[in-house]
Design brief:
alpha/beta; binds guanosine-5'-diphosphate; binds 6-O-phosphoryl inosine monophosphate; 2 domains; globular; Adenylosuccinate Synthetase, subunit A, domain 2; Adenylosuccinate Synthetase, Chain A, domain 3; 33% helix; single chain; binds magnesium ion; 21% strand
Length: 427
């Protein structure tokens, strides 16, 4: 059985944690391939709620091996506290594997993230302040620190020196901050080495051998398609590739091994941080979606911006990820609206546009063209099959499927593991 990718089709927070957890019991490995603890993935198991940041959601399924791939950026202190938090709740985390090639989020990367945002002022990205961008910048600039560097003090010291050289100039001369001492950083990082050692390995080899042995590997994306550094709403994006190709580079598994790419799609749209959002609602409907959907960030506690479903974005996600399926989440949140507008195209400078414009100036001017679908008022949280849904909810799902370009194979009707309608099997 080859590999599957599960990723966000919008601006993140689509319900990737829940969807991954649902499949966790039937897969052998769950792999994070990009991002870091900017992610906040919620999993609800019975009366227990878990918020995962760096750990793959498969960690909650006994029998599943969680993997942090080479494409992830790892804040060791966050990782260790996430592990001990889960241990305290009785979750076995001993199977975790961490790539020795994953990059480390150092304390100075977190500092740089915060000062750059402050200096951007009105133009800020609204990052999570977790050091994600600066850590990927160091990786690309070839001054990054990798997990394996923790096991060679001399190399680690040289690398921290190289990384801090330029940064201390910037911090002291431009940003008016104190310089960061190399020794202090090295000492802190070395302090994590022993604790992480049992998990660190060559995950590329492990995953490829597992696939040769017909094991099932699930890649769990962080963030979402429109936050992708290449395909998202740049510069209001994260600094990695949540899109399907990122699963290959971020894990060392080739594209020929991937058989299915599942886009997690919320039945409406949300976004955290700055940047364009054509269907955003700044009215009572937006407020109601936020309240009923519990749309508050898992990582930063910020209110999420809310708006109607945008089929232009869904079609784009299908295209850039080669999606084979959608998992539609939070349909239950739309219960109670008499009518539900869905954005089917944009109006840009007086013209109707069906596909996402590549030009940022056009996208910033895009006005949604809505089609209005009839709503439903029946409680759908107990629905177990598609036919259990009220006719108008069925029609809403079918309309979204037709507009979005890939089959909707599962529907979320509540946050719990069992509050899901399976339309087509994923495995
Ligand atoms: P992720 O980052 O993509 O994993 O998503 P988040 O966990 O940040 O946000 C999704 C929120 O929606 C979480 O609170 C989930 O528990 C919740 N959720 C997921 N699927 C459903 C669903 O089908 N219905 C409802 N009501 N909540 C859901
Ligand atoms: P999950 O995995 C929603 C957003 C931030 C900001 C931009 C850049 O839970 O879906 P960063 O700290 O990554 O440099 O911030 O990306 N962002 C997310 N929004 N869900 C996430 O993760 C996000 N991770 C980053 O709000 O706009
Ligand atoms: Mg989230």
């Amino acid at each position: 059985m080859p590999a599957l990718v599960l990723l966000g089709a919008q601006w993140g927070d689509e319900g990737k944690g829940k969807a991954t957890d649902l499949l966790g019991g039937s897969v052998d490995y769950v792999v994070r391939y990009q991002g870091g603890n900017n992610a906040g993935h919620t999993v609800v198991v019975g009366d227990q709620k878990y918020a995962l940041h760096l750990l793959p959601s498969g960690i909650l399924s006994p029998g599943c091996t969680p993997v942090i791939g080479n494409g992830v950026v790892v804040d060791p202190s966050v990782l260790l506290s996430e592990l001990s938090g889960l241990n305290e709740r009785g979750v076995d985390t001993s199977k975790l594997l961490i790539s020795g090639n994953a990059h480390i989020i150092t304390p100075y990367n977190v500092t740089v993230d915060k000062v750059t945002e402050r200096f951007l002022g009105k133009r800020k990205i609204g990052t999570t302040g977790r050091g994600i961008g600066p850590t990927y910048a160091d990786k690309i600039n070839r001054v990054g620190i990798r997990v394996q560097d923790l096991y060679d003090e001399s190399i680690l010291t040289q690398k921290v020196e190289a990384a801090l050289d330029g940064k201390n100039q910037l911090l002291t001369k431009l940003y008016n901050r104190r310089a960061i001492a190399v020794d202090q950083v090295v000492e802190e990082l070395l302090g994590y080495a022993e604790k992480l050692a049992p998990y660190v390995t060559d995950t590329v080899l492990v995953l490829n051998q597992a696939l040769e042995q017909d094991k099932v590997v699930l890649f769990e994306g962080g963030q979402g398609t429109l936050l992708d550094i290449d395909h998202g709403t740049y510069p209001f994006v994260t600094s990695s590739n949540p899109t399907a190709g990122g699963a290959c580079t971020g894990s060392g598994v080739g594209p020929t091994k991937i058989s299915r790419v599942i886009g997690i799609l919320k039945a409406y749209t949300t976004r955290v941080g700055s940047g364009p959002f054509p269907t955003e609602l700044l009215d009572a409907d937006g407020e109601a979606l936020r309240r009923i959907g519990g749309e508050r960030g898992v990582t930063t506690g910020r209110d999420r911006r809310c708006g109607w479903f945008d089929a232009v974005i869904a079609r784009y996600a299908t295209r850039v990820n080669g999606l084979t399926d959608f998992f539609l989440t939070k349909l239950d949140v739309l219960t109670g609206w008499e009518e539900i507008p869905v954005c089917v195209a944009y109006e840009i400078d007086g013209k109707r546009v069906e596909e996402l414009p590549y030009s940022q100036s056009d996208f910033h001017h895009a006005k949604p063209i809505y089609e209005t679908l009839p709503g439903w008022s029946e409680d759908i949280t107990k629905a177990k099959s598609f036919s259990d849904l009220p006719k108008n909810a069925q029609a809403y799902v079918k309309a979204l499927e037709e507009m979005s370009g890939a089959p909707i194979s599962a529907i979320g009707v509540g946050p719990g593991r069992d509050e899901t309608i399976e339309v087509n099997s994923f495995l």
